[in-house]
Q: What sequence folds into this?
């Protein structure tokens, strides 16, 4: 219901108002939301996670707890393994030749890397939105949204039509595309394509949504729309977002984890905490230096 | 100030001796490469003009609709035979070649890919006469001179073309598209088939058409396998290639003229296919 209302607001207000709204949205709102949805499932626990490309260790011993139905931002300089780390959560990392993962990642107590978890199944529960919008070029807008359901099977045609509309509404895209659902997904603008990709991701009803710098290819207005959307989605999904943009991290996230790179170029977790605290009063000097723009 | 602008004007407008020499070299080179380019396409122009002139008297409608033994002889049997042969060849080597290309691009480990690519390169380098000799030695003793032996020889020749082209166009499918599908929880084989192959389909079909045109213009394997007959028939193929070969060897002006006309028909078909492929690739690039 709340998403519904937010979306109509979106379409009636101009870009300027959106900027003002986003700037005025205080952390209090975030606090209220997270306390209400605590314990609903979708808790991610990373323990001693290391990720390697062949012999090179890109991520070193990351231990991190992600609260259910909250937004956790991963920040840090380029090359510190943030993207690699979130790709271990939906088991995409291992699809690259020579890539391996050690340590354990569990979702509500189930180890995603245990032998009885099929990686294909894990990826249905843990969805992912990529850096560059990547709609399927051969599919229409509605086919893009339904692609996951159609390709994994088990959903009837009549159900699919409803899910397509629902997903597009949640992704705040329905009003813009409802009259051209049969046009190619690639005909949309960059920001719309990214929201299409988000609709496609939530159509398969994941519990966790990973976002790998979802706004880095978008202009500021499109970025704000996505950020608003991320806030809305946090009511239902556990969201982990990698971002280079610290303002973005402070705007959208409840928790922030700061990563850095060791002498051996392995990324490691420096510290993690509530976003407001991380940005005003970080414990580590390294974090403070990065946030104040002294390096990275 | 005025002196300076004067110097600049001089710099801009009065070339030095070295610059004049460079300009002369430039022009000489331009003319040389222009002549070379003209020489390169001259054979094509000459060929088309010559074949057109020689075959013009024979290009009457009956030429396309009659058989060689009819009162006004034609090459219908050859055209039909060629299409049967190449059609069957594509039916056999198409599915195998495409599946092989999909395997190399989507499933094989880097090591297997390296081995597979080497094998394809070797097969692409096999002269067509070798494929012909192979079919001649293995199949002709069993089947006699037959279109089937020719189909096997042509399939051997087109298989690596199909595999290579399929693999190449699949390689052009962005990894981001595959990852999008995998991240939705779509199994690898479905991602390969309904996302990768689907996205590359126009390119894969272009490869099939190119293989078709290669099979259509192939000579050596046919002379060693199918030979050809003078009657229209099914599966005892006569081919346009064979018609040209046999007619041009005949001591008969009528038949030699028909050889020219047949050559023109073959050229027209090959040209049409090439233009078709060009159109396809241009379209897919702009789309």
A:
């Amino acid at each position: 219901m709340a998403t519904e209302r937010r979306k109509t607001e979106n379409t009636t207000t101009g870009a300027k108002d959106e900027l003002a709204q986003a700037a005025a949205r205080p952390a209090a709102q975030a606090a209220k939301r997270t306390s209400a949805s605590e314990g609903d499932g979708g808790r991610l626990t990373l323990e001693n996670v290391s990720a390697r490309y062949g012999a090179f260790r890109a991520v070193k011993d990351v231990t991190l707890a992600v609260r259910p139905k909250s937004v956790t931002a991963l920040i840090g300089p380029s090359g510190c393994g943030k993207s690699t780390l979130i790709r271990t959560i939906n088991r995409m990392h291992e699809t690259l030749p020579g890539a391996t993962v050690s340590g354990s990642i569990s979702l509500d107590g189930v180890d995603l890397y245990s032998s009885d978890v099929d990686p294909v199944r894990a990826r249905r529960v843990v969805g992912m939105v990529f850096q560059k919008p990547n709609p399927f070029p051969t599919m229409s807008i509605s086919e893009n949204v339904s692609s996951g359901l159609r390709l994994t099977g088990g959903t009837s045609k009549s159900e699919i039509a409803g899910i397509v509309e629902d997903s597009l509404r949640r992704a705040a895209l329905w009003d813009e595309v409802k009259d051209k659902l049969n046009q190619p997904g690639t005909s949309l603008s960059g920001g719309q394509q990214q929201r299409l990709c988000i609709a496609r991701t939530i159509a398969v009803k994941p519990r966790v949504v990973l976002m790998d710098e979802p706004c880095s290819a978008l202009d500021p207005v499109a970025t704000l729309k996505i950020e608003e959307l991320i806030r809305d989605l946090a009511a239902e999904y556990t969201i982990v977002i990698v971002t280079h943009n610290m303002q973005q991290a402070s705007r959208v996230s409840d928790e922030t984890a700061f990563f850095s790179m060791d002498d051996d170029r392995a990324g490691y977790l420096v510290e993690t905490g509530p976003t407001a605290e991380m940005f005003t009063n970080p414990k580590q000097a390294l974090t403070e230096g990065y946030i104040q723009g002294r390096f990275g | 100030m005025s002196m300076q602008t004067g110097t600049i004007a001089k710099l801009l407008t009065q070339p030095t001796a070295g610059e004049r020499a460079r300009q002369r070299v430039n022009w000489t080179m331009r003319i040389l490469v222009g002549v070379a380019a003209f020489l390169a396409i001259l054979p094509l122009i000459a060929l088309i003009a010559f074949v057109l002139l020689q075959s013009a008297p024979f290009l009457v409608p009956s030429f396309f609709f009659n058989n060689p033994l009819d009162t006004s002889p034609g090459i219908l049997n050859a055209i039909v035979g060629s299409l049967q042969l190449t059609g069957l060849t594509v039916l056999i080597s198409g599915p195998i070649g495409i599946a092989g290309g999909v395997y190399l691009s989507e499933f094989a480990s880097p090591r297997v890919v390296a081995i597979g690519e080497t094998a394809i390169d070797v097969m692409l380098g096999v002269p067509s006469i070798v494929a012909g000799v192979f079919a001649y030695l293995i199949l002709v003793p069993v089947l006699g001179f037959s279109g089937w032996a020719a189909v096997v020889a042509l399939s051997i020749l087109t298989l690596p073309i199909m595999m290579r082209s399929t693999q190449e166009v699949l390689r052009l499918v962005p990894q981001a598209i595959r990852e999008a599908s995998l991240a939705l929880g779509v199994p690898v084989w479905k991602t390969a088939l309904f996302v990768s192959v689907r996205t590359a389909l126009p390119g894969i079909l272009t490869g099939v058409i190119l293989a078709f045109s290669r099979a259509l213009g192939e000579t050596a394997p046919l002379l060693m396998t199918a030979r050809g007959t003078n009657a229209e028939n099914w599966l005892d193929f006569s081919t346009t290639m064979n018609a040209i070969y046999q007619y041009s060897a005949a001591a008969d002006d009528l038949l030699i003229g028909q050889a020219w006309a047949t050559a023109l028909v073959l050229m027209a078909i090959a040209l049409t296919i090439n233009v078709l492929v060009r159109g396809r690739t241009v379209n897919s690039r702009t789309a």
Observations:
- Chain B touches chain A at residues 109-110, 174, 176-177, 179-188, 190-191, 194-195, 198-199, 201 (CB under 8 Å).
- The CA atoms of residues 62 and 72 of chain B lie 7 Å apart.
